[in-house]
From TrEMBL:
<protein>
    <submittedName>
        <fullName>Oxidoreductase</fullName>
    </submittedName>
</protein>
<dbReference type="GO" id="GO:0015942">
    <property type="term" value="P:formate metabolic process"/>
</dbReference>
<feature type="domain" description="4Fe-4S Mo/W bis-MGD-type">
    <location>
        <begin position="8"/>
        <end position="64"/>
    </location>
</feature>
<keyword id="KW-0560">Oxidoreductase</keyword>
<keyword id="KW-0001">2Fe-2S</keyword>
<dbReference type="GO" id="GO:0043546">
    <property type="term" value="F:molybdopterin cofactor binding"/>
</dbReference>
<dbReference type="GO" id="GO:0003954">
    <property type="term" value="F:NADH dehydrogenase activity"/>
</dbReference>
<keyword id="KW-0500">Molybdenum</keyword>
<dbReference type="GO" id="GO:0008863">
    <property type="term" value="F:formate dehydrogenase (NAD+) activity"/>
</dbReference>
<dbReference type="GO" id="GO:0022904">
    <property type="term" value="P:respiratory electron transport chain"/>
</dbReference>
<comment type="similarity">
    <text>In the C-terminal section; belongs to the prokaryotic molybdopterin-containing oxidoreductase family.</text>
</comment>
<dbReference type="GO" id="GO:0016020">
    <property type="term" value="C:membrane"/>
</dbReference>
<dbReference type="GO" id="GO:0051539">
    <property type="term" value="F:4 iron, 4 sulfur cluster binding"/>
</dbReference>
<keyword id="KW-0411">Iron-sulfur</keyword>
<keyword id="KW-0408">Iron</keyword>
<keyword id="KW-0677">Repeat</keyword>
<keyword id="KW-0479">Metal-binding</keyword>
Length: 688
């Protein structure tokens, strides 16, 4: 009826479950969520969503939501007023800064939160505390991809749009379980295969859905993508298939790069990667035959000790074949969290101000000093990996962590948790009492996306607005309001009344966002950075030039360093990643009934061969043991994995949490944990 219709509120929002950035209207009545309605005008997804976007919202009304601040007293958490909590935080932060200096504090922004909240978090760290110790979880996933792109083409983001992926002649997916991790983007590839015969090549350890759909499926040995990519590039050059006109006009460093490829013969690549030479030739031929090639990649590439170098090798291959700056071409590191792109873009990183301008650059720093009216630190801060080491070394004393269950999602969880025990003071701000909250001194109740306004930036650098559908539950508050309250208790005089004012400040300071305004983002409108002052945005980068002096891209030689071998007793390799139905440690999705019902707990995929060898069946209970810890998990026997490969989804916050197995090894350049480099042994607890 009309009366009922009038009581229903329809609010435009953006999904919080992956970097595709699906937007839609959410229908609510009071606090009840009635439905999610995708709209054709949604720029990234049109009328599509996946199961998480459609059914993953119950958590906002979970009885587990934090609704009041909590303070630890005599080792128990007691409810407190906001005044008590904020006073305590200001007193302890000031005291620790006075005793040990500003670099004894560190700040973790959340990639689930908005751009405006990331901006305020880095401003709090830099302008109010006086440290560059601020980071976010892009360090756990895509920093190596960003590094590979910075080195070669200049911008740390997808070089085109999802529509480019859809119109490519050839799509190559490396180390990405796209159908489960970026479902709506995967449907664009599936549709393009059907509609215009797009070709698909997939390289992965595991035969996931996209691998099954591929024209060619490559199964390299773990951590060896660099080698087959370089061998394919060399083969293309040797056959005279490089795009000489493009290289001549737009790329530097070709001759030196060609020399660096010498070791990467097909025979060598076959030996190292296990991929037959005939398949490598097919990859080269497919790229040569295609008018346009896109390469998509994710954690299978980046979460390795050589993640930055492999990402560089990907970009080198695209440059050699002229696959930048045209429709259907480009490099697409698929961003995981809904706003992992934006949280980095807006400066929650230890070496960058918003828009990737270096904190060590005097001119840039002076611009921020003038705007903020303070002197700023000139040395880069600690990244989140270094923060954990600095706690163990007694140098870092206090942390403020927003929306990140860092004690479970950082690698080598036992080591991280031991560090958190040592902190003098810790503030955790979240929706739920997470594992990390257990280590805190103050826990602050935050509001989820449906209860606040702001912007997210998706994997295509697309900035989109979200509007408030629900009032904050209980005494919870939007993160930006909490950060501002803490800053002001510490003596700042911030007066933001709405996130649009925060964006206006960021846009006035960071040239990358010069033309971003809330008016230009109204409703389903969006902008892809860089955005010129007149509001012109950039759906496709590098059409005319690369953002380096002289405008040319750079071919960057990268040497191959093999993964370290494990002790023979650790005879199994654990691959890990996502499930369609769950998001990370599952704090939100296990509290959404439809999703929890469908997949109630994590499971370990075991190959039929290994199951036979160990005498186990689906449903068996096993313990996996690495040098760093152990997990207990039920088994699913499946031929998606082969031989001594295992697959453990990362979506568990209990006894099967993957990071009890991972080490503190990292990518050599960016310190991204080598989450995919895990060797274990298996003990059978119950065989069936
Ligand atoms: Fe959300 Fe990603 Fe699914 Fe879209 S594809 S609905 S952004 S989880």
């Amino acid at each position: 009826s009309k009366i009922r219709e009038r009581q229903i509120k329809k609010t435009k929002t953006v999904c919080t479950y992956c970097g595709v950035g699906c937007s839609f209207e959410i229908w609510t009545k009071g606090r009840e969520i009635l439905k999610v309605e995708p709209k054709p005008e949604a720029p990234a997804n049109g009328i599509s969503t996946c199961v998480k976007g459609k059914f993953g919202w119950d958590y906002v009304n979970s009885p587990d939501r934090l609704t009041r601040p909590l303070i630890r007293k005599n080792n128990r958490f007691v409810e407190a007023t906001w005044d008590e909590a904020l006073d305590l935080i200001a007193e302890r932060f000031s005291d620790i800064r006075a005793r040990y200096g500003p670099d004894a504090l560190a700040f973790i922004a959340s990639s689930k939160c908005t751009n405006e909240e990331a901006y305020l978090m880095q401003k709090l760290a830099r302008a109010v505390i006086g440290t560059n110790n601020v980071d976010n979880c892009s360090r756990y996933c895509q920093s190596p991809a960003t590094e590979g792109l910075f080195r070669t083409v200049g911008y740390g983001g997808d070089s085109g749009s999802i529509s480019d992926i859809a119109q490519a002649d050839l799509v190559i997916i490396i180390g990405s379980n796209t159908a489960e991790s970026h479902p709506v983007l995967a449907t664009r590839v599936k549709r393009a295969q059907k509609l215009h015969g797009q070709k698909l090549i997939v390289a992965d350890l595991r035969k996931h859905e996209m691998a099954e759909r591929a024209d060619l499926f490559l199964r390299p040995e773990p951590g060896t993508d660099h080698v087959w990519l370089s061998a394919v590039t060399k083969y293309i050059i040797d056959r005279g298939w490089a795009d000489r006109a493009f290289i001549e006009a737009r790329v530097e460093g070709f001759d030196e790069y060609v020399r660096s490829l010498e070791p990467f013969t097909l025979a060598y690549a076959e030996k190292v990667t296990g991929i037959p030479q005939a398949d490598l030739i097919r990859v080269a031929e497919s790229i040569h035959a295609a008018r346009s090639t896109c390469i998509l990649w994710a954690m299978g590439v980046t979460q390795q000790c050589g993640g930055s170098d492999t990402s560089t090798a990907i970009s080198n291959l695209l440059l050699v074949t002229g696959n930048y700056g045209r429709p259907g071409t480009g490099a697409y590191p698929l961003r995981g969290h809904n706003n992992v792109q934006g949280t980095s873009d807006f400066g929650a990183m230890p070496m960058y101000f918003p828009g990737y301008e270096k904190v060590t650059d005097d001119e840039v720093r002076q611009r921020y000093e003038a705007a903020w009216g303070v002197k700023l630190p000139a040395h880069p801060g600690l990244d989140n990996h270094q923060m954990v080491d600095a706690i163990h070394a007694g140098k870092l004393k206090a942390m403020y962590i927003i929306g990140e269950d860092m004690s479970l999602v950082d690698a080598n969880a036992n080591y991280v948790q031991a560090a958190f025990e040592k902190l003098e003071f810790m503030v955790v701000q979240d929706l739920f009492f997470s594992k990390t909250a257990q280590f805190a001194d103050v826990v602050l109740p935050a509001s989820p996306s449906l209860e606040k306004e702001g912007t997210f930036t998706n994997t295509e650098r697309r900035i989109q607005r979200l509007y408030r559908a629900l009032e904050p539950l209980g005494e919870s508050k939007p993160d930006w309001e909490i950060i501002m309250a803490i800053a002001n208790r510490l003596g700042a005089e911030w007066t933001y009344r709405h996130p649009s004012e925060i964006m206006a400040e960021a846009a006035s300071l960071a040239p990358l966002f010069a033309g971003v305004t809330y008016e230009r983002l109204e409703g389903f409108r969006s902008l892809q950075w860089p955005v010129a002052p007149d509001g012109t945005d950039s759906p496709r980068l590098y059409e005319k030039e690369f953002p380096f002096p002289g405008g040319k891209a750079r071919l960057v030689p990268v040497a191959w360093i093999p993964p370290e071998p494990a002790e023979p007793v650790y005879d199994l390799h654990v691959n890990n990643g996502r499930l369609l139905e769950h998001f990370h440690e599952g704090n939100m999705t296990y509290r959404s009934s439809g999703l929890a019902h469908k997949v109630p707990e994590a499971f370990l995929e075991v190959s039929p061969e290994l199951a036979k060898e160990r005498g186990i069946e689906t449903g068996a209970l096993v313990r996996l043991i690495s040098p760093y810890g152990s997990v207990k998990v039920r088994v699913l026997v499946t031929d998606r994995v082969r031989g001594r490969e295992l697959y453990l989804p990362m979506n568990d916050a209990g006894e099967a949490a993957i990071n009890y197995l991972t080490s503190s090894k990292t990518d050599r350049v960016t310190n991204t944990p080598a989450y995919k480099d895990v060797k274990v042994r298996m003990e059978v607890i119950e065989p069936r």
